[in-house]
Structure formats: structure tokens, C-alpha cells
Specification:
Layout (H helix, E strand, L loop, with lengths): L1 H10 L2 E7 L2 E7 L3 E3 L2 E7 L3 H8 L2 E8 L2 E12 L2 H10 L14 E14 L6 E4 L1
Antiparallel strand pairs: 1-2, 1-5, 3-4, 4-7, 5-6, 6-7, 7-8
């Protein structure tokens, strides 16, 4: 999990894919955290991506860094605990102007059943499952 976290953190921006009906939806994200041994992302419950993950929690993440790319398949699981939200906000203080650990909009989700593959044109893929 740490290799996946470090890759996404160093990439800075990753692209999160969800599904709306039969249409894939992709958007840039930047929040990634490890809390209580799980990999977390953050969004707002008012956003379309939150609604899409509620309807179908299967997601994919993709990022590129230094000649390598990562693809992450996972199930996004909502964690409505204040502690999980606060941990994310503490790690990304710039979010505190728009989000609060106790508001009804802030959402953090942990990734389960993760299969992450780091690939390049010059080496064999590295696969991580957690």
C-alpha cells in the first residue's frame, strides 16, 4: 500500500474514473492519505462523483509520473467518521476553507479490494493487492 500511496502522492494529480449509468466519468483529484491502515480519498457529497460512487462504488484511478503510470482498481467505501475526515483535512489544510470534519458535505472514502499496477515501457509491471 505504501508504494501505491507514494506514487499517487508524488504524482500530485491523479484521475478518478466512476460510472454514471453506462457512461464513464473521469476527473482530476489530488487527495490521497493513509489512515488506520487504509488508503483514503476525499470529495464533497454534493458532487456528481460522490453520487456516482454511491450508485456504483467500483472506481479506477490513473496517474503518470517519471515515465511510469499507475492504474488502481478498487471499491470506494464511505467512512463518515469525524476522525477520518479530520485526518484528511489535517493533511490537506487548503481544504479547510471549503470543508469541515463536521459538515454534511465532506466525504472521505477508503479503497478496498485494491489491485494497483505500476507500469512502464522499460520494465515488467509491478502489481500490488490489498
Amino acid at each position: 500500500m505504501n508504494e501505491v500511496y507514494e506514487f499517487l502522492k508524488e504524482a500530485g494529480t491523479y484521475y478518478l474514473a466512476t460510472v454514471e449509468g453506462d457512461q464513464p466519468r473521469v476527473r482530476p483529484f489530488g487527495t490521497i492519505s493513509i489512515f488506520e491502515g487504509k488508503l483514503y480519498i476525499q470529495t464533497g457529497k454534493s458532487k456528481d462523483c460522490s453520487k456516482q460512487m454511491a450508485a456504483n462504488p467500483k472506481i479506477e484511478i490513473c496517474a503518470f509520473k517519471g515515465g511510469e503510470w499507475i492504474r488502481v482498481q478498487a471499491i470506494a467505501v464511505d467512512d463518515d467518521r469525524v476522525e477520518a475526515k479530520q485526518d484528511m483535512l489535517d493533511k490537506y489544510p487548503s481544504l479547510k476553507g471549503r470543508y469541515s470534519a463536521t459538515d454534511s458535505n465532506t466525504q472521505v472514502l477508503y479503497l478496498k479490494d485494491v489491485v494497483a499496477t505500476i507500469s512502464s515501457f522499460t520494465s515488467e509491471p509491478k502489481v500490488y493487492k490489498f
